[in-house]
Structure formats: structure tokens, C-alpha cells
Fold each of these.
Amino acid sequence: MIEDNKRVIVALDYPDADSAIAMAQRLDPAISRVKVGKELFTRCGPSIVERLQGLGFELFLDLKFHDIPNTVAKACGVAAELGVWMVNVHASGGRRMMEAAREEVEKRSVGPARTSLIAVTVLTSMERSDLAEMGLDIEPIEQVKRLAALTERSGLDGVVCSAQEASAIRQLAGDNFQLITPGIRPAGSEVGDQRRIMTPADAIAAGSTYLVVGRPITGATDPKAAALAVQAEVDAALTASL
Ligand code: C5P
């Protein structure tokens, strides 16, 4: 099992730097990490990464790169030079793309720990009919398992997956393969637009390593306390699983 007492990644889904920084200032880098996605990064560029790191946060740069191997590898290399904690690619870019990205991240990581490189398998917005239209006439979970196995064989650190997929992937992957899981809703919190949700404790029991949590924390009256409560639920679930 992975030794890490910070299992919560707070999604900073904001359209501009001021809002993201204001939220980060209401969180505690000792309790959680943060995630920057395409909207915020496209608006602000690397300066938002540097500003969040300046506040002490380790950061997941969720840009889901997908292109020819050389292009993705170079982009991941820049992310590693920025010192981000984690960056991701689409597993459907294939083995050569993932291996090239991994090599570049290894070469260009700065700081004591190498930047983690993970992959997205099948977007959770895709249903069986969407895959069929793309010529893949199989259940999404089968494609998820294939791509998770390919990700592991390509030497990446883990995959993003829904909590519902976590136990199936956990069965086929090694103990150190990280499962990063969004769609988390602590008991009693608003579901919002998420369709398949799980509580933090259930996600950990299903084999998740890190939980991506947005609105249940960022929309709370006290975001830091909300993040601490999720981490406490994770700690209890991890202890129970020993
Ligand atoms: O606010 P909420 O907790 O729903 O935020 C979840 C975060 O995880 C968002 O940044 C969303 O884009 C991301 N995500 C997701 N489902 C996926 C992949 C990523 O909700 N399948």
C-alpha cells in the first residue's frame, strides 16, 4: 500500500486566477493537494501553477494530453520541470506515447520526488453507445480494464477512474498502481451533476488511492474543515482495511 497521509486532491475548477487563489488560501497544503484543469490553465498558464506552489501546495496538472508520442512527451517534460506533483495523459494514445512521456518525466523532474504520470482510460461521460460509434463494440468497463493494464505495462504510476471501476482495476493491477478517483460525495453533500458517486470511505474500500473532490469542499462554509473531514474519513477507511 502507498504511504501518503494526503489522499484528498481539491479540484480548483475556477475560471480565473483570483478565484482559484482565494480558494487555495482557505485550504491547507498540509491536509490536501490541489488540481488545476484545462479551463484555469488555459486562462492563466504556468503562473497559476507557480502561485499555488508558492502557497505550499502540491499540484495535479489535469491536462489529459493526447497526441503523437514526441509532442506528449515534451509537454509532460515541461510539466515535470514546473515541479508539478502529478500530470496525466490519455491511455488511448497508446503504449509508445505513454512510454515516451514516462521517459521524459523521469529525465526532467525537479525536486526530491519524480512527477507522477497517470492516464485517463475511458472518459466517464462515455457510454457503451459512444464506444460503439467509435468502432468499439464492448462494455466501457472492458475497455477501462484493457487501458489500465496497458498503462501499467507502459510504466505509468496509475489511472484516473470512477470509484465504480476501482475494484476491477485493483484486481488486475499491482499494489503500488495508483487509482485517482473523482465523483466523491461525503454522506449528506449535494450530488450536483455527478451521476455515479461514492463516499470517501467506500472509494477507499474499493481500492482508490487518491480522491478528487471539488464542490463538496470548495462549496463548504469552511473548506479547510471539509477537506479535513474527508481526510479523516479516508484515514478511518484505510485503518479498517489493514
Ligand atoms: O465538484 P466535483 O467534486 O464534482 O469535481 C470533480 C472534479 O473531478 C472535476 O474537476 C471534474 O472535472 C473531475 N472529473 C470528474 N469525473 C471524471 C474525471 C474528472 O468529475 N470522470
Amino acid sequence: MAFELPKLPYELSSLEPHIDARTMEIHHGKHHNAYVTNLNAALAGTDAETLTLEDICRNISKYPAPVRNNGGGHYNHSLFWTILSGSASTPSDKLTQAINTDLGGMDKLKEEFNKAATTRFGSGWAWLSVKEGKLVISSTPNQDNPLMDVADVKGTPIMGLDVWEHAYYLHYQNRRPDYCAAFWNVVNWAEVSRRYEAAL
Ligand code: MN
């Protein structure tokens, strides 16, 4: 059973002005689609064809680079689309409590997460994950993620921000910090909260 490009759960223009429709169109339709196509090609005829993407990520050190790059690409973007929304939402009480206890509050979360996102050199991702029941912030290079056995900080990712230039360059050019700041306007806190409870 081959992996498939998931449909976006909203219109291409839903995240404007923070993330523009043209960026979404290319990012989802071209970049993410290429990760899916290349992942399927890399897995074709191998034993891993029947595994879940999560299981592949957890043992990623055993796979060749095309599986790591494209499997991570497919997993990361599939998560990314769901934790974005054009509608306002707030974290659940349970997630709010954890943000206060584990990270020192929402302002501190934003500060640390944006630091992870803006200081990641080159291409990569910033993450909010659950590790042994606690929230942790980290970043990964390329298409790696915290599920992977190669990650410096391992955990179950519940929110991620793509900081590859393809994610923001059309609208923000070199201004990655502006893109990272705008991200907070389009976080789908309902979905991040759902993922938090599922990860516990
Ligand atoms: Mn991307």
C-alpha cells in the first residue's frame, strides 16, 4: 500500500496573510508531493513497504538516506498541515497547564520555540514534543524529526514549524524571524491539544 499525499484540511488561501496561497500551493502540491513519490519509490519492493511511517521513523538509522529524507518529509508535512488553521483557537486546559508547568508559560514557549526555529542553520524544523510525559522544544536538520532514533531530542512531536526556505521565501524572503512570528497567528491549538493528549 503506497503512501498518498493528504488533502489540505482548508483552502490554500485560508492562512493568509500569514502564509500565502501561492506558497501553500507549491509547498503542498510540489514539495510534499515529491516526498511522497520519492518515498514510495525508495520503499518499493522492500520489507518496509507494509510498515507505518511512525515505525519507519523510529528505526530510521537502519534505512538508506532516501527513506530518511522523504519519509521524514512526508511525516513532517502531514503533521504540519494539520496544526495550522485560519480559525482562532486556544490550547486545552490540560495543555495550558503543561505549558505552564513544563515550559514556564505561553510567552516562554513562543520565545524558546522561535529561538529553535530561527537558529536552526540551513533547512530544518522546530518542534514541540512530548518526552516522558513532559513538553520539550527542539529543532532538527533537513527532514529529521523527534520520532527518529537519530534525533538529539527524541519524543512524540505535537507541533512543528517548517523553516526550509521553500516554506516562506516567496512572502518573507530572508526574513525567517518574521515568518516564525507570524506562525503563532495560524496555530491550530485544538489539533495540538488533541495530539498532546494522544501522546501522553
Ligand atoms: Mn516543507
